[in-house]
Design goal:
The complex is a heterodimer.
Chain A lengths: L4 H7 L16 E3 L5 E3 L6 E5 L2 E4 L4 E5 L8 H13 L6 E5 L4 H4 L17 H28 L6 E4 L2 E4 L4 E4 H7 L32 H5 L15 E7 L7 E4 L2 H5 L4 E6 L3 E6 L2 H10 L2 E3 L12 H13 L6 E6 L2 H6 L3 E9 L11 E7 L2 E6 L4 H12 L6 E5 L15 H13 L3 E4 L2 H6 L7 E9 L5 E11 L2 H4 L1 H6 L19 E9 L13 H19 L3 H8 L4 H13 L11 E8 L2 E12 L4 E12 L6 H20 L5 E2 L2 E2 L17 E7 L12 H4 L1 H13 L5 E2 L3 H8 L2
Parallel strand pairs in A: 5-6, 10-20, 16-30, 18-19, 22-23, 26-29
Antiparallel strand pairs in A: 1-2, 3-4, 4-5, 7-8, 8-9, 10-13, 11-14, 12-13, 15-23, 16-21, 17-18, 17-20, 21-22, 24-25, 25-26, 27-28
Chain B lengths: L1 E6 L2 E6 L6 H8 L18 E4 L2 E4 L12 E3 L11 H8 L9 H14 L5 H8 L9 H17 L11
Parallel strand pairs in B: 1-5
Antiparallel strand pairs in B: 1-2, 3-4, 3-5
Classes of the chains: A alpha+beta, B alpha+beta.
């Protein structure tokens, strides 16, 4: 039986006839703000439910509740709906759903009932629900056909987009049925048996092309930075470099105001905006603008730099009298360690990271009376609506939000307050005109919400037989949810969800205590792709290698032993070991290995590491990764996510160093904060595994999650030296080589 | 100040400051939004266009310096999106977020005009001017190899809409 029947009754909403949108190559219409969406030749459209519209010409428009930030969910989630609806995929168009939590929220429990695209949860979260809705839609169409023909439902079958009465040979397309179908009061109930069996899938499991790619290949204006409603003016925003400070004085206000095309300088609570009639005028003026800022109200940030953060985190993590939030707790690890025959211990740490999404943050806002129209890219559209209400008193009923494609997000645009959107709304109100705010890249850097630094303290205990049986892992760092998602932080009762990701060992220990030691340095933070899994696994997977080396055991064999009760995980380890020819490697091969288990997704990774010992530059020409994704809804998309995750991960661990001085970020553009370039990218060898009958699990983070550990372990294999702090930039490498 | 520009084969007259970067003239004055702003300091390549067929950072060119050079943007790379590079980009499903891809394709088209059968090393050396944060590099390489084969196998060279 389908759960949550009551919910599906509420689902049954009929809006006015909508315009179907498709993503064919050539025909694009622009909305009022100039943002393109493809349009088919319009005919009357029947809105069958909040989730799907069917036109008389058989074009079917399915809602994507997920945002599209490059991960492909906008295509994959509707694929699942279309499968059970038995729709002809060639006739399907996709549009972003309205921002209505009640109807479109992600059912994943930790999402807490809202529309949210992050944490690799779209395909896995919507899998059951949209298949039910698709099946209900199909059943509604069949019931309408049955009534029309005066036959029993059981006599009917469907082929893609067609209902057939086999014995009489009659058939009707979904489009034909939609023209006469009466809208029933309740959605028909669907039993589990009525859903397709896996071997009946026509769409799920196939690599259908992504619906948004044609537009992106022809330069269509689909990002919020491209919106341009008539009468629009432009603005830059210079936010205080130190969180918690305020603008006191604009020392060169007159000179800036006098510049050509400058309309107004607007002082905001924590920023100064320049509004101009051309963007280039605002852009140039922003670089020259000189603001005197107050001292920050956050004591921690006064003369803060990352070394201070490292020192205080290290102290906290080693202070065993202060317990942390127990992410994993079984047996009694402290007691076990106290009486162990031998104890291993190690420390690791990780630096700050910047999201570096290639589209600088921006939005466009326009008021029509008291109604607000806004173009913004967001991973959390309903959080944006909530923020508009709480911060500016604008109710959701007065907001028309155009959900734009995003030129990257990686977690940055899931932050609840949506500072980069409120900027344009405030300025539009002040100017009484449409305003496009684009943060200069330098300002995007200075107002960054960073991945926090961590310090890790690990201990493992061995018994007299030389077997590892107890494990302690303490990880200290700021919890990004406090700032980024107060709604969910409160729902989780202050549990440090993001800091603890990947902290559980995944290995077989009788006693294990993995704790998050919650810190608050005061810097701006938000969730970033990979989450704390990256530093947490850097610590634990490098530590595992250290222990294996101390015991003279092959690191892969050692892991297999610790996974002896987990055959599925062992399979993952063996798969990658075989892909990378682990057993054939020579001494000092530079081949490094790591294993990870996040939620129900297991993966293993191997990296070939080379190092120029004079310059300290590490290169990684090959990466092998195997990931069990349960079910690959769109295999090409899964592959793309794993490739992207590896490249993203390699960039952050090899090249990206973000530093603070006096509470402010020192870097201001990509000449100072380097991203991986194409000639530094590895060849990536991927094996995607599935489990019979399993549901899909997330893949967005998996290329990134344990890569740092694999590279660290490969470096040690090559040089005999151990790297203990991310990023593995030349300065850190040279320091380690001279030890 | 008025400037006459030749963009995608058509003449345009714009009113802009002499030091206005071509990037912003294309985007906000001419409403050609396919060319993107990523960094403004010639580090990311999202702003790449062709000047007389050669790829260049439009964020670094003041509009007063363009003169009669023919500008080609992503919108003018082909008549209907079927430049071999664009076809290959779709076949290989290259874009993730897509924001860097206009610049990537303009840079790739430039490579293939001058070298119809580049090696992998030549590809990555040429393309290193263009950042991709989503990590589509493996697919970019594959798509360029794919496009090269297409160009090699067609007798007619792909035409850019340059005019003049």
């Amino acid at each position: 039986m389908v759960n949550d029947v009551q919910h599906t009754r509420r689902e049954f909403l009929f809006g006015s006839a909508g315009i179907a949108i498709g993503f064919s190559l050539n025909s694009y219409a622009a909305d009022k703000g100039g943002i393109a969406s493809a349009t088919s030749s319009a005919t009357d459209s029947a809105t069958v439910s909040a989730w799907v519209k069917i036109q008389a010409n058989n074009r079917i428009t399915i809602m994507s509740p997920s945002s599209e930030l490059g991960q492909g969910s906008m295509t994959s989630v509707p694929m699942m709906f279309a499968e059970e609806m038995d729709a002809n995929w060639d006739d399907v168009d996709i549009e972003f759903s309205p921002s209505d939590d009640a109807i479109f929220h992600n059912p994943t429990d930790w999402v807490w009932g809202i529309i949210l695209t992050l944490g690799s949860s779209s395909v896995s979260g919507y899998f059951d629900r949209v298949r039910q809705y698709g099946a209900q839609t199909r059943k509604m169409l069949m019931l309408a056909a049955a009534e029309k023909w005066g036959v029993e439902l059981e006599e009917l079958v469907t082929e893609p987009s067609v209902v057939l009465h086999k014995s009489s040979g009659r058939q009707l397309t979904y489009g034909e049925i939609s023209a006469f179908m009466k809208k029933p009061e309740f959605m028909p109930e669907i039993s589990e048996e009525e859903l397709k069996k896996r071997d009946e899938f026509r769409i799920i499991g196939t690599s259908v092309p992504r619906c948004d790619i044609p537009a992106k290949v022809t330069g269509q204006p689909v990002y919020s930075i491209d919106a341009n409603p008539p009468g629009m003016v432009f603005a830059t925003v210079k936010r205080t470099p130190v969180r918690g400070a305020k603008p006191l004085e604009i020392t060169n206000e007159h000179a800036i105001s006098a510049r050509k095309d400058i309309l107004q300088i607007v002082t905001l609570d924590d920023a100064v905006a320049i509004v101009a009639s051309t963007y280039e005028a605002a852009y140039r003026a922003d670089a020259l603008l000189d603001v005197r800022w107050s001292q920050t109200k956050f004591e921690n940030l006064l003369d803060y730099d990352q070394q201070k953060g490292f020192d205080s985190h290290r102290k906290a993590v080693r202070d065993l009298s202060k317990s942390g939030a127990p992410w994993q707790n079984q047996g009694d690890a402290e007691a076990a360690i106290a009486k162990a025959a031998k104890v291993y211990e190690a420390e690791y740490s990780s630096g700050y990271l910047y999201h570096a999404q290639l589209e600088p943050l921006n939005s466009v806002a326009q008021f029509n009376g008291d109604e607000l129209e806004v173009w913004a890219g967001t991973q959390a559209p309903t959080h944006l609506l909530r923020s508009l209400e709480s911060e500016m008193g604008i109710p959701a009923t007065k907001v028309r939000l155009h959900r734009s494609h995003m030129g990257g997000a990686f977690g940055r645009r899931g932050a609840q307050d949506h500072d980069y959107v409120l900027d344009s709304v405030r300025l539009s109100k002040t100017m009484d005109k449409p305003v496009k705010v684009i943060w200069r890249r330098e300002e995007d850097f200075h107002a960054a919400r960073v991945k926090p630094i961590t310090w890790q303290y690990l201990r493992a205990a061995e018994n007299e037989e030389g077997e590892l049986f107890a494990w302690s892992h303490r990880s200290a760092g700021d919890e990004p949810h406090k700032q980024a998602d107060p709604y969910r932080y409160e729902k989780n009762n202050g549990w440090p969800v993001l800091s603890g990701y990947g902290l559980e060992t995944g290995y077989d220990f009788s006693d294990a205590l993995c704790e998050v030691v919650d810190r608050d340095t005061g810097v701006r933070t938000a969730a970033m792709r990979g989450l704390a899994t990256v530093p947490n696994k850097f610590g634990s997977e490098c530590f595992i290698d250290e222990i294996a080396a101390a015991k003279g055991i092959d690191p892969v064999q050692f892991r297999l032993g610790l996974l002896r009760h987990n055959p599925e995980a062992q399979k993952m380890v063996n798969t990658v070991a075989e892909m990378a020819n682990w057993s054939g490697r020579g001494e000092n091969s530079g081949l490094g290995f790591a294993f990870g288990y996040v939620d129900v997704s297991s993966f293993a990774i191997a990296a070939q590491v080379e190092c120029n010992e004079e310059t300290g530059v590490i290169s990684v020409p090959h990466v092998w990764i195997a990931n069990n994704v349960g079910l690959a809804v769109n295999p090409n998309s899964v592959e793309a996510q794993l490739q992207g995750g590896v490249v993203f991960g390699l960039s952050t661990l090899l090249k990206e160093k973000l530093t603070y001085k006096n509470g402010a970020i020192e870097q201001s553009n990509f000449h100072q904060y380097n991203l991986l370039r194409i000639d530094e990218a590895p060849e990536i060898h991927i094996r995607i595994l599935e489990t019979e009958g399993a549901k899909p699990v997330g893949t967005g983070d998996n290329g990134t999650s344990v890569l740092a550990a694999a590279v660290g372990n490969g470096f040690t294999s090559l040089t005999g030296k151990r790297l203990r702090q991310l990023p593995l930039t030349p300065d850190n490498v040279l320091a380690a080589l001279t030890i | 100040m008025k400037f006459d520009l030749i963009v995608n084969g058509a003449k345009h007259s714009v009113d802009a400051e002499p030091d206005a970067p071509l990037l912003w003239v294309l985007r906000e004055h001419l409403k050609l939004y396919g060319t993107k702003y990523g960094c403004g300091v010639a580090q990311c390549g999202a702003c790449m266009v062709h000047l007389n067929g050669q790829s260049t950072f439009s964020c670094q060119i003041p509009v007063s310096a363009v003169g009669t050079s023919a500008i080609t943007t992503i919108e003018g790379l082909s008549e209907d999106g079927n430049h071999p590079v664009q076809q290959a980009w779709i076949e290989e499903q290259v874009p993730q977020c897509g924001y860097c891809q206009s610049g990537q394709m303009m840079r790739a088209a430039d490579l293939l005009t001058n070298n119809s059968a580049p090696s992998r090393q030549e590809i990555v050396t040429h393309m290193r001017t263009n950042l991709c944060r989503c990590g589509t590099y493996p697919r970019i390489i594959k798509a360029i190899e794919n496009a090269a084969k297409k160009i090699d196998s067609t007798s007619q060279a792909n035409k850019e809409v340059t005019g003049g």
